[in-house]
Amino acid sequence: MGSFFKYFTFSIFVAFFAIIFQAYFESGQLQDVTLVLSDLVKLEKFERKAVPRIVVGYGSCSDLILRAVDFLNYSESYKDFQKRNENDDEINNFEDFMKSFLYYFHKGAAAERYTPNKEVFLNLVQLAKKHSSSRWELGGNAPIMATRLLFEKTEVLLAATMSDKQKTHLINGIDIVDFKPTEDFVDDIHLILEYKTGDVFGEHTAPRANRYILHSDENNPMLKSLDLLDVNSFKPNLFIVSGLHMMDSYPFKDPAIRSQRLERAKEQMTSADKNTLIHFEMASYVELELINDITKYILPYTDSIGCNEQEINNLMNVLEYGRVSIVADSNPRVASTLDEMRTVFKILNKNYFENRDKDPNLRMLSRIHIHTLAFQLILNVKDSKWKRIKNAVAKSSLMAHSHVCQTYYVNPESAMLIFDGSFATTADPNETEDIRPKRIEANKSKPGASCWKETIYVGSNPVDVKICIAPVLVCKEAKKTVGAGDNISAVGVATQI
Question: Which residues of 411-440 are buried (b: 16+ CB within 10 A; e: fewer)?
Fold first, then answer.
């Protein structure tokens, strides 16, 4: 009885200590979040002398959004979903779809996939429409970015083909290219399956909040709005190119059509005034041939790229090793992300330095924006046209929280920090000729953003850059993940022009 009493007393003590420790930890975390928030709010404020004009292309869709674990039913027949080969992202039937969804769900990785099976897709859409948690929203990279850009007090021209009904969902103030839909025109639909951190599906638990998108588009893969757009007539300060991933895995009747459309996009980009900056928004790609075409037709004529942790890793693997990276760490280390960013910067700009005399339309990649769950990271080339890098990284961080939590004001109690502000600048143990600090420590009194300078060698060409990073106030209870990257990138790039 005495030993039991001692054990019981000890158990109570341990439980009590755990409660006290948890309360102490949460109190410290809340204080850290409040300090970061206060500094980010100060940093996001800036003034412009003129209103920027921005063109955004291409495409649009109707998003049908619902919570994945409430909609889908788990089956043991899908348990071998991790046995993947190069064709596993071909979704030809319902089982392919379920295995694809499970793969990305258990990794917590964003994905967007095409299915040629119209029957499977439309059946899923019909079931989703009847589900109590489903809702319709205006979708597509270009319309979402255009909407955010208007809120950022810019003038916007959107290149998208829409039905008259879908146009009514555009907010007032966005100009749109002149498209007159035929009677049989139907808006493309994207099925958005969202999940939260900790959502359980069968034996699997989502490590972070994210979304899986399934589509069977007919309009967007053809870049139909491209032919309706005259970039220079709008006299933009910035031209944003997005939506090209809708071509991924699409069965063109003639394989040459895709490269012809990308060639046409290149012509549109190279015809833009030299003073017009060009930003390319990356997305989820699995088809190596398409990414290779984008590195040929699009990236050499781009000033800036925006991407998440999956997309920068995929682009680096294609550029350096010639292979697609299906999925990457959904919560990567800062050092690893910096290394990937530098690799992409070097490879793309190597082409610029080697061929700029042969092709006067080539542009130096002078900006990279990477958005992750834990942090925002922006690189700018010194003396480029990009301004206010510290403001941009701060605004991007606040936008990440606001969008995912679906709130304008940030409540510190609804946020947490994953990134602590202290990190190595590289995970590579080998010495390089690049010049950079070995480690960055955040200013404890001003923890909203940290910036530093580096010299990156592109071949024998030294390029001076400035890099800024800001911690994200991660939303504890995710309410919306789809469109987060578009809103974040739009805020970041709009702040810098």
Answer: ebebbbbebebebebbeeeeeeebebeeeb
